[in-house]
């Protein structure tokens, strides 16, 4: 008989018996996000939940950090994510969803070791911290240019008139892409947003495929052109590093090796063109509700990075992503069987009071170690340096300029039912500050 104080043997987690996310008020997207966080982290809240697709939902900070980094918590390979579309004897080119699958099979998200670390290196060699820091002046200049061109005193849509063109032009500069094409790529990436819905509408499939084709033609086309013309170190570096990878395709687990720099970039920059826009917009959304923060950054410009981190902790663009256990995982006091679909709620972890005390309060001086808005472990977002630079540049330019931004509408423009916390519009007014008005 075990002693009274002996640790209890791990028990197999019965995912089907868990309460659902919906029972705690979560229906996807930002609308239900904050109330869900308050409810699950109230005293006596649940340890694990179940999502609508029957997946195990992990949301507590310590669990996300541990399980998100577990080697057997695999990402979903192309044939798992897009069953029947890519792995048949002939590709199902005319089936709905094919264009999306054919694009995203080139995405790191769909690869596991040993391919994932090899491909991550290709990307990080171009957008690691040093390379991204070298883009700071250019990025601030793009923000200043966009803000300077906006009319004052009338509502402008910050998502479409600032965040989206900023991100488009950022990548366009690296890909030798004219501004209009680069901005169009960001628009097409946004048109693909319905694929991130938790309740996909089959009728939207054709439009998403059309957007995926248009986005890919723009980005891959620019990369192919840049490579053929020469003189573009970003694309040339990707092509050089990609050609050194000697790993076979395995659509069922390891993943697919992109066959050209253009295919690699169009796949992996999807989040670059899409989610980075959300990062800039959500940062401004959080700031608009706390005008004192921008004032503080005006006085202490070195606090801009801390302000962005806290904005993205409070308003994380990515709420949840899927994983799959490819072996039994014994964790803490539970056993998670092999073959279980897992929803990792990266955005929710940062609202766990055991990791971030008083989580709903904006605290510029709060330590951000262990924050999960960019994931964690081997798959941690390789684009985070770009995303943070873009949002910080926006804050820095606003703080240094003679403009204030104020909300122009109370209307709710959050995309509903999504795995993301995404603003479709963010109407704002640009106003001269007292300083600017006096000059
Ligand atoms: C604020 C903006 C962004 C947020 C919140 C975000 C968030 C995330 C999260 C939560 C993950 C999953 C990490 C994990 O599983 O541990 C991820 C992965 C990824 N992100 Fe981002 N991301 C952003 C911007 C970007 C940008 C700008 C790029 C451009 C290259 C990018 C490319 C990727 C890729 C390729 C992966 C897959 C990495 C892998 O599986 O190894 N993301 N991102």
Structure characterization notes:
With 439 residues, this protein is an alpha+beta fold. It has a domain at 78-323 and 380-438: Cytochrome p450 (Orthogonal Bundle), CATH 1.10.630.10. The protein is 45% helix and 8% strand. The strands form three sheets. A five-stranded mixed sheet has the order 2-3-9-6-4. Strands 1-8-7 form a three-stranded mixed sheet, with no helix packed on it. A three-stranded antiparallel sheet has the order 5-11-10. The longest helix is centred in the middle third of the chain and has 25 residues, at 205-229. The protein is globular. The model has no long low-confidence stretch (mean pLDDT 95). The protein binds protoporphyrin IX containing FE. Protoporphyrin IX containing FE binds next to helix 5, helix 13, helix 14 and helix 18. Protoporphyrin IX containing FE binds at residues 68, 75, 107-109, 116, 120, 268-269, 271-272, 275-276, 279, 317-318, 321, 346, 373-377, 379-383, 386-387.
Provide a short characterization of the protein structure.
With 439 residues, the protein is α+β, with helices and mostly antiparallel strands. The protein has helices spanning 33-40, 61-68, 78-81, 98-104, 115-127, 129-133, 136-148, 158-175, 179-191, 205-229, 233-243, 261-268, 270-273, 275-288, 291-299, 304-314, 346-349, 384-400, 434-438; strands spanning 11-12, 49-50, 56-58, 73-74, 156-157, 321-325, 329-331, 334-336, 341-344, 403-407, 427-432. The longest helix has 25 residues, at 205-229.
């Amino acid at each position: 008989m075990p002693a009274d104080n002996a640790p209890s043997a791990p028990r197999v987690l019965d995912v089907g018996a868990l309460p659902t996310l919906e029972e705690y008020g979560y229906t996807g997207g930002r609308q239900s996000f904050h109330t869900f966080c308050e409810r699950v982290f109230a005293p006596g809240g649940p340890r694990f939940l179940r999502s609508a697709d029957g997946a195990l939902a992990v949301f507590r900070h310590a669990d996300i950090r541990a399980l998100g980094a577990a080697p057997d918590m695999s990402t979903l390979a192309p044939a798992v994510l897009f069953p029947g579309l890519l792995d048949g004897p002939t590709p199902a080119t005319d089936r709905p969803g094919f264009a999306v699958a054919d694009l995203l099979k080139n995405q790191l998200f769909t690869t596991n070791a040993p391919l994932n670390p090899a491909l991550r290196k290709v990307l990080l060699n171009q957008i690691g911290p040093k390379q991204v820091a070298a883009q700071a002046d250019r990025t601030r200049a793009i923000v200043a240019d966009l803000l300077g061109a906006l009319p004052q005193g009338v509502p402008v849509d910050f998502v479409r008139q600032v965040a989206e063109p900023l991100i488009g032009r950022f990548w366009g500069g690296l890909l030798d892409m004219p501004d209009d094409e680069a901005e169009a790529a960001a628009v097409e990436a946004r048109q693909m947003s319905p694929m991130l819905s938790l309740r996909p509408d089959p009728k939207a499939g054709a439009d998403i495929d059309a957007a995926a084709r248009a986005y890919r033609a723009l980005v891959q086309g620019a990369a192919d052109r840049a490579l053929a013309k020469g003189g573009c170190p970003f694309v040339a570096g990707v092509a050089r590093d990609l050609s050194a990878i000697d790993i076979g395709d395995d659509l069922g687990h390891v993943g697919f090796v992109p066959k050209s720099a253009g295919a690699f970039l169009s796949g992996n920059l999807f989040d670059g063109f899409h989610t980075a826009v959300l990062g800039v917009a959500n940062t401004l959304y959080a700031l608009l509700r706390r005008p004192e923060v921008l004032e503080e950054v005006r006085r202490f410009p070195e606090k801009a990075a801390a302000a962005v981190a806290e904005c993205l902790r409070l308003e994380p663009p990515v709420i949840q992503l899927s994983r799959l256990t490819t072996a039994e995982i014994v964790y803490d006091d539970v056993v998670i069987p092999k073959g279980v679909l897992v929803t990792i709620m990266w955005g929710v972890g940062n609202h766990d009071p055991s990791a971030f005390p008083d989580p709903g309060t904006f605290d510029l001086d709060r330590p951000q170690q262990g924050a999960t808005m960019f994931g964690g472990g081997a798959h941690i977002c390789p684009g985070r340096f770009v995303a943070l630079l873009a949002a910080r540049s926006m804050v820095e330019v606003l703080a240094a300029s003679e403009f204030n931004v104020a909300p122009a509408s109370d209307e709710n423009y959050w995309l509903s039912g999504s795995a993301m916390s995404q603003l479709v519009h963010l109407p704002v007014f640009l106003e001269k500050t007292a300083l600017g008005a006096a000059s």
